[in-house]
Amino acid sequence: MNTTSPLDCKAWPQLQHHAETWRDVRLKDLFANDVARSTQFVAEAPGIRYDYSRQRLGAVTLRLLANLAAERGLPEWREALLSGKPVNTSEGRAAWHTALRAGPSSPPEVLQTLERMKGLVSKIRGEGRFRRVVNLGTGGSDLGPRLLADALGDRTLDVRFAANVDPHDLGRALEGADPASTLFIVVSKTFTTQETMANAAAAREWGRSGGGTHFYAVTANVDAAKQFGAAEVLPVQDWVGGRFSVWSAVGLAAACAMGFEQFEQFLAGGREIDLHFAAASPEQNVPVLMALAGVWNTNFLGCATHAVLPYSNALRLLPAYLQQLEMESNGKRIDRAGNAAGYATCPVLWGAEGTPSQHSFHQLLHQGTQAVPCDFIDVASDEILSANLSAQADALAFGSEDGQSPGSRPSSILFLDRMSPQSLGRLLALYEHKVFAQGIIWNLNSFDQPGVELGKLLAKKILSGGN
Ligand code: F6P
Question: Helix 74-82 vs helix 421-441: angle between axes, to the nearest 10 degrees?
Fold first, then answer.
């Protein structure tokens, strides 16, 4: 499979030349000259419509980008990903998160773990022994379950999260709780992460005053969790990356918050997108189109950041989740072959929920000195919300008569048919496959995170008195 530099692809200089011709193209004129544009640059995935007509690109751009993806060997790499081949080349592992949501054809160990999760969730939600559930984890062991619980929790249980080693965070999670009716779920693939282990120790201390602490654990390091004294230990396979792990037992706290059936619907939504990603043609493959629009904006139009703006309070934690997914995956300067990339890779991803974001940083989006490509997400929950979303996308695209807002600022809109476990599953799977496709185009291994180790090492050194 292709691990050479994308700079060696025929399509790369063609795209560079093509970008020159696009420098002064105004979106306003594109729409004025092509009445079909708003229906042509749209693609459908199950339950999601992707409108990219306000991206600064045309049919020729798309053809050149599709050529680049083909030269990069995206179809072969996609096949390898979906069939569990070791695409995580630096760690010699698969990245088989799709197997966690493959329904009955999931690997036996996945089905066993789901069965155990189901039993535990109905016990925790049904027996009334626990009123508070506290997820202790960070990164992928926090951001995914926290997003699901916040977006879809039904308040049957009070499910809280503590990720920071700052005692204030655990303090918040334990406000008004008592040890007897509080269950801690220690979630750590390695079961070595400093902050999570420190919080688990602090939780144990807190429980001592109330007759002891109740611990479950979710980890790939089952022996360490048993040694720690967890009453239940749910395994995570080593071929599941942290930032792709919400579909696994890492989602236990979320399943406690939303109910196991809703969690299964979340998995089903992800599965629908896996089938779409595997089979849809490049012109209609939403994750691929999202990836190509991003590469065009970053590598050929020179945009250094990307904003995600969910017009949904339920999705307020989505930007934080996507920051890890995108930037820990593709925030890399060294390519798969170990060479310095020599081209831009992952843009800085940021964002917040709309409409509050309008009253915060949209001034910069409209009139700042740098163009920020935006993903707007519409969950069809409110007409005022949707009207504001469309207004923002149009204002970015077409600008103001007086030219103060220059316009021609690219954006896409993802229309979800509703806010539900299934639609959230679809949305997260879309971004996962977008990230994978971009990693292939940038010749990156999207599944390791070597850059996080140095800081951990230095912190340990400082704590042990070294310098
Ligand atoms: O430090 C980064 C990281 O390794 C992430 O990739 C991961 O999601 C997070 O820390 C937590 O790791 P663990 O689940 O092993 O505690």
Answer: 130
Q: pTM for the full model?
A: 0.98
**Residue 348 Cα, ligand 1 centroid: separation in angstroms?**
20
* Phi, psi of 323, rounded to the nearest 5 degrees: -60, -45
452 pocket-lining for ligand 1 (C-beta < 6 Å): yes
Atom 2 of ligand 1, residue of closest alpha carbon: 452
The residue among 325, 332, 333 whose CA lies nearest residue 375 is: 325
Neighbours of 171 (CB within 10 A): 12
- What is the chain's Cα-based Rg? 23
Both structure tokens of 321: 């989740």
Strand order in the sheet with 132-136: 158-162, 132-136, 182-187, 214-219, 232-235
Q: Is the CB of 331 under 6 A from ligand 1?
A: no
CA distance 323 to 320: 5
**How confident is the model at residue 467, as a pLDDT?**
63
| C-beta separation of 211 from 164 below 8 A | no
What mean pLDDT comes out for the span 186-191? Answer: 98
Residue bearing tokens 């696994």: 248
DSSP state, 347?
P
Mutate to test the pocket of ligand 1, among 147, 189, 445 (most ligand atoms within 8 A of CB): 189
pLDDT surpasses 90 at 324: yes
Q: Which atom of ligand 1 is nearest to the CA of 453?
A: 1
DSSP3 helix / strand / coil % (the chain, rounded to 5) = 55, 15, 35
Over the stretch 151-166, which tens digit does the pLDDT of each residue have? 999 999 999 999 999 9
Q: Residue range 46-59: average pLDDT?
A: 98
Nearest atom in ligand 1 to the alpha carbon of residue 190 is: 15
- Which among 409, 418, 421 has a CA at the least distance from the CA of 386? 418
Q: Which residues are catalytic?
A: 328, 359, 456
Mean pLDDT within 364-386 = 96
Closest atom of ligand 1 relative to the 140 alpha carbon: 8
For residue 416, the surrounding DSSP H or E stretch is strand 411-416
Q: How far apart are the first and last CA of the chain?
A: 43
Taking a C-beta distance cutoff of 8 angstroms, is the pair 97, 244 a contact? yes
Burial group, residue 460, by CB count within 10 angstroms (0-12, 13-18, 19+): exposed
Q: What is the pLDDT of residues 206-230, one digit of tens each?
A: 998 777 899 999 999 999 999 999 9
Q: By alpha-carbon position, which residue is closest to atom 9 of ligand 1?
A: 139
